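Quick check before the chapter quiz. The format below is the same one you will see on the exam, so make sure you can read both the input and the output lines.
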Amino acid sequence: MKTSVRWINDYLEPEADAEAQGEALTACGFPFEGAHPLEDGDVQQEIEMASNRGDCVCHAGLAREIAALTGRTFTPPRPETSAAGPPIEQRMAVDNREPGLCPLYTAHLITGVTVGPSPDWLQERLRSIGQIPRNNLVDATNFVLFELGQPTHIFDLDLLEGDRIVVRRATEGEAFLPLGEDTREVALAESDLVIADAAGPVALAGIKGGARSAVHDGTTDVLIESATFDRVTVRNSSRRLGIASDSSYRFERGVHPAQAADAAGRLVQLVLELAGGTLHEGVATGGAPIPPPARIEMRLQRCTDLLGQPLTRERIVECLAALGLDPEPGDEVVTVTVPPHRLDLAEEIDLIEEVARINGYEQLPIDEGMAVQVTPVQPELEATERLRETLVGAGFLETISHTLVSEAAAGHFLEPGREPLRVNDERAGGEPILRPSLLPSLLEVARRNRDRAGLTLGAFEIASVFDRAGDEHRERSMLGLVLDGDHEADPSERYRTLRGALEEVARLLLGDRGALEPEATPDSAPWLVPGAVLRAGGDRVGTIGMLAPGVARAFDARGPIAVAELELGRLLADYPPEPDPRALPSFPAIQRDLSVIVPESVAWEAVAATARASGGELLEAVEFITTWRGAKVGADRKSVSLRLQFREPGRTLRHDEVDPQVQAVGDALVRTLGGTIPS
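Here is the expected output.
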């Protein structure tokens, strides 16, 4: 907020120079942000305002704070006026239909005013804070606004239709033309509060006056408004209509109904002084009764305990009295009466903060040393970071993409029985769906890199996905992986690379004894052809496979794309995995390689399981070597090579001892899987 050093000094005795004001306000919690000397010797200062201190968005309020901190005397304006005209009710009344949104509306009537330029002192005060003087009536309302922080307004009485001011909600679509150059007519909503006459709105409550009833050079009779409006209503209307003002800025921070009378009296005094005229007797009002001042108790011991200072009761009372809180000290508590302008004071802790502020934050004790206990990294965070390192080490790039996708992109990756979640926000444009899978985002990243840079990359992302079944919403933390390929890429090589990366992930998250076991269930992930569900310990934790041709075309694929998703909630639950140490073997193992030709539909897991079941007690491990396809093995068949490892813990095995086991494994593969052992 722009302030004038000379203007603030109008209310201080003795005066404070620019440096003293800046230091005091900074110490009070209103940081000084810069000064600009003016030609007339005044200094304009920039002071940062707190959002909950509407009482200080004015010069008198800041002067009150400086006085409280420095011991100066604060002298607020005390207007004196006398009425000589007939009662106001003979010409104008107030009908407040929304006391919940307008707790108090007051109107004064002055007739016979003369509109003209403001005196030099008033013009200087307004120019010192960057305001442009208009005329004596408009300048008077601006002066009161920046002096007391209470917005007011002056209507040309002859331009008001009817004999009453009505405070009401707008009707839907009602037109209103605000004051100002190049303004446009706006359509109001039922949530807007307006000040209206018999012909319609003449002001948007707390925000802007209307052009139809504005004062002009020929104005002679005026109606002076001083009121209080609900801060939320003012804020919502201001934001929705795109109309902001110095008035709305203050009402949004809160103005107490009890402040309306002082501001009205000050404005009436200025109008009579600057423009002449006759004040009519009485005040036209409408609203709810002004609530009594709040009273708060503060425990003296609680105050000293929280501040860590042995403050005396006298010093605490002195700090509260400096703020105008009328403290009433007792043996153990101090009771204060909260003045209307301090809407931020509601409970004991607020008073303790005020004591700390006025006594001086620099007085708070600070320990030279501080005990620090390092908190161990949360297992989930450590696992996620190590997961990123593992995948980057495997050649994948991490991506961070937008949570929203198009409806078409989301539709490819919905599980059977699940529906998408839509956001109701016009800013989402053509992407209003919270993604049900990370794959559409990753595939879009792959497409852009492919189109713009000719890159076929491997990418991953760790983020949340969303879907629903009826009214049940679901959010899951997922790991998504995409391995792009050009038209020359081998689908098997793409899949094996991705499968290898997932095995590293499984080893990290589940330990050496854990594994991700694929299970062919194409119906549960229709975007995969071929595809499999990944299980860990019997629980489904994800999917892996090749992107279906139809889905691949939607993302302009030029070759086979391998994709996978893992649900991290289940995998991170038991991180870190329990170690499973084993003694190193004392005797060597015997390894035998075996190839079997099986139908294309037979998965490696079936081959490995059959080998383990038939290999006998000496079989220690079954390892995959490679898969080969070609004319020699026949259509719809493949040759799978595996390595069998045998070991006897207590001695060295002889080759003739494992020959029967190798033969048994081969027979089982032929018998169980319909395989053929090539000669």
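If your answer matched, good. The chain has five domains: 2-74, 88-287, 295-363, 379-572, 590-673.
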